[in-house]
Structure formats: C-alpha cells, structure tokens
Amino acid sequence: MPALDRSLVASLPVFQGLTPEQQDDVLGEAQSVRYPKGADVFQQDQQAQHFFLLLHGHLRVYRLTPDGQQVVVRYISPGEIFGVAMALGRTTYPATAAAVVDSVALVWPNAVWPRLSETYPALLANTLRTVGSRLQDAQTRVVEMSTEQVERRIAHALLRLAQQSGRKVETGIQIDFPISRQDVAEMTGATLHTVSRVLSAWEDRGLVEGGRQKITLRDPHRIFMLAEGNGG
Amino acid sequence: MPALDRSLVASLPVFQGLTPEQQDDVLGEAQSVRYPKGADVFQQDQQAQHFFLLLHGHLRVYRLTPDGQQVVVRYISPGEIFGVAMALGRTTYPATAAAVVDSVALVWPNAVWPRLSETYPALLANTLRTVGSRLQDAQTRVVEMSTEQVERRIAHALLRLAQQSGRKVETGIQIDFPISRQDVAEMTGATLHTVSRVLSAWEDRGLVEGGRQKITLRDPHRIFMLAEGNGG
DNA sequence: CGAAATTTTGACTAGGTTCAAGTTCTGTGG
DNA sequence: CCACAGAACTTGAACCTAGTCAAAATTTCG
C-alpha cells in the first residue's frame, strides 16, 4: 500500500481540530481504493463494514423502493465522508453508492471507529456537523417536495448540483459529471418525461443547454428566480 | 431552581455511557422550563442560544416557507433532545418548535456544550446517533414523497405517529396529543381537503375513528397493508 | 347563544403522469 | 470508417390524482 499523502486531505472539514500527527494516525488506518465508473462502493441493506472519504470522482447515492423505483438521495463530491453507518448506530447501509465516473476513496474498517472516535473527539464533532448539514438538506428537500411544483423543484435541484459540482465553461456553468434526465427525475420526484419537457422549454428560453447526460446552466440567475417562485 | 432528579432521565439514550456522577454534572448545567400549550420553545431563524431535552408533553416542529406555508418537520416526544443547532454547526434554529400540549423541557445554554462535549465524548456519540436516525427518517420521507400517492403517505404518517406517541384505548390506538387534519396535511404534503376526504373514507371502512383534533387507528394492520401498497 | 375553529363535501380544474411513438446520440464491431 | 444497436432524449395525446374554489355542517368555548 502506498503511503497516503496527508497534504491532500489535511484541510478537509473532517480533519479540522486534529494535529498533523493525529491526522497521520487516522490516515494510517485507511486504504485507498479505486472504483471504476458504474461500480458500487456499497449496497443498500448490506452489512456495513467500512466507512469512506471520497478523494476523486463522483458518487450517486440512491435508495431502491420495494417496487423497484430509484430515488437519488445525494451526490457525493471529493472531500466528503460517507457510509458512516456505524457512527449512526446502524449495522447496514441505508442506500447504495455507485461511482458515476472513475473514483477513488479512502476506506476505513469499521473496527477502527471506536478507537479513533474516542481518541479524537474532534472527529466525532466534525462528523456530527456533516451529518447535521445533511439533515438540513434532507429536510429542505421535504419542504420543497411538499410546497413546490415540479419546475421549481428541478430549478432547485440543478442549482444545488451546480453549486456542489459546477464547472465554469464559456456558455455558463456545467454539471461536472454525467447526469441524465432520468437522474434529475429521481432527485425531484418527477418523471423522466416531465423533466425532459421542462428542460426543453428552458432551452428554448435560453436558460440551459442540454445534451446527452449533460446539463449546462446558461443563466443561473434566471433559474434562481424561477426556483424562488419569482419571475418566470 | 429545584434540583433535577437524575433517575428521571438516566436511562435515556442521550445519557448512555455516562456514569451517574457524569450525568449529574451534565444535568447540573440545565434548567427545567415549562411551556404552556401553544407557546414556542424556539423560533425559526432565531439565534440559537440553548439546546433542549423534552421531559413532558409534545412539541410540533415546523418550517415556514417564504409564502407562508407550514411544513411539519417532526413531532417531539418526551426523552428526546432537540434544538441542538450549535452541535450541528448552525447559529440559528432551522425551524420553529411549539408546544401542542403543556410541556416541560430541560434547557442548557449553548455555552456549556463545548465543555460537556469535550469532557464526555459519549455525549457526542449519542447525539450523533440521534441526528443520524433523524437523517434516516427525513430521507425515508423524501422517498415516500417521491414514490407514493397521498393515501399511502397518510397511512405511513399515522403509523409513525401511532408508534411514537400512540396510546391504547378500547377502540384501537389513539394519537396521544391534539392533531388536526391540517397538521396531517402539513406532514404529508397534501391539502387539508384531501386528508379529510381520505380519513372520511377510512372511517366508513372502519379503519380509523375521527374527531376534532383526534385520530384513533381502529385497524392498524389494515392501515399498514395500505401503507405498504398491498391490499386496500 | 354566538363566534371562531375545525371538519366535511361537492363541483370543477389542472399539473403532471401514463401511454405510445419517434428521434438523436454514441460507442462498438465488422 | 461506417453501420447499427442500445441508450438517452423528445414529443404528442389521453387520462387521472389531487388541488382549488365554494359552501355548509359540526364542534368547542367564552
């Protein structure tokens, strides 16, 4: 196993409040693993044996309903910890995480969590903040699904993706990984068809630029107005 | 201030892993406060100055949208900690908590959190588990809102309420606090009218018994079947 | 008893799904 | 290098769930 370079991860939120030596101790327990595009990092209802930190790539986390529908819980970007089922008191993963592009993650065996979390309470505190902010996100999504119509939900979803993983290009801000209309549908509780119709209409109005598994926000400001229910 | 009786709270999940002396230390920083029915414990966007543990009563936690719609985030039952905004890295409360019946809570000033959480990592770990389970709940709700029709969402919401705060009565399981059709609507992303229609239909079929701000599940099993999408 | 809050019910409407083709990409293998 | 098969996307038409609008009935409480 190649030594992990602390400088790559020292500035991440998870490691705040730890000295370089402590960071080395934590990193020393991890292995770096590569996940090719399409591979699962872990699967829903599987025994949770590890927790993770994404170094490169993007993951799509989704839940499968009994009747086979998928709902996208979130996308994970580099620097985020994920799969911390054990810290949350669970024995299985609540969702499946799959690489949408070739990805690399640090992997810790669950067995080291008790020692690390007792030795370094800052690690616990940082994890609590991360989980807390995801709770906020999830509750915001519940509010949106309860009160907003599809077009506004799509606007909010795209703005979140752009903020999280947007890349500036000449024509605007492009989502930095392959994302289909179906994916957007599974993030917003709409159907593929409705998402396609909405994006087509937006494209006619110059708000976005479509493409196969590609979405570019041409006019983020007007999309924001749409999301907030103003203008149209 | 009357001394707080440790025996009342020692068995709660938050205090697991602490010795009686440590529990006394934590409790010693808290005050017991009474909230009459209808009073707010804290308000959305208010500076977060305290965190709480509910001793008696029931709280309704809701978020208000810019256009004035309310969405119920959750109901809090005795024994639960809440309002832990600071531990989550927030400076304001993300929602409003109001007493639906006369209630009593332990109140800690935020200022004591850094010391307590550093001194007793178990407190951090327990809080992380609590927040984690709320994250699961919120994500489950997102999945339900994305994939289920109103009738099933209402069934799920009532079953959750019954599990959390159900009281056995002769005719079935009654929700143990006043809850209106409007409240159920705000929990499920439906309208008052739709909830009323669904509950009326269920009452005709003998599944529930209605009443002003009162709901009794007469046949929890058949409601469960409904929630799971089987029979009807 | 009267006023306010809660609940019920009817009629109509509409946003979004479903059903059904058809079109446009993209990567692969001959 | 081009043909082609599969995947992704688009679009039209019919339909339906749940929302909206409107009004009345019931309950509670001062």
Written account of the structure:
Two copies of one chain form a homodimer. The model of chain A has no long low-confidence stretch (mean pLDDT 95). With 232 residues, chain A is of the alpha+beta class. The first copy, chain A, has two domains: 6-136, Jelly Rolls (Sandwich); 148-227, Arc Repressor Mutant, subunit A (Orthogonal Bundle), CATH 1.10.10. In chain A, a hairpin with a 5-residue loop joins strand 4 and strand 5 (70-76). Chain A has helices spanning 20-28, 113-119, 121-147, 150-165, 181-188, 192-204, 220-227; strands spanning 31-35, 40-42, 50-56, 59-64, 70-76, 81-82, 96-99, 103-109, 166-169, 172-175, 208-209, 216-217. The relative contact order of chain A is 0.13. In chain A, the strands form three sheets. The first copy, chain A, has a four-stranded antiparallel β-sheet, with no helix packed on it. Chain A has seven helices and twelve strands. Chains A and B meet through helix 3 of A and helix 3 of B. Chains A, B: It holds the Pfam family HTH_Crp_2. Chains A, B: GO terms for molecular function: DNA binding; DNA-binding transcription factor activity. Chains A, B: Residues 148-221 form the HTH crp-type domain.
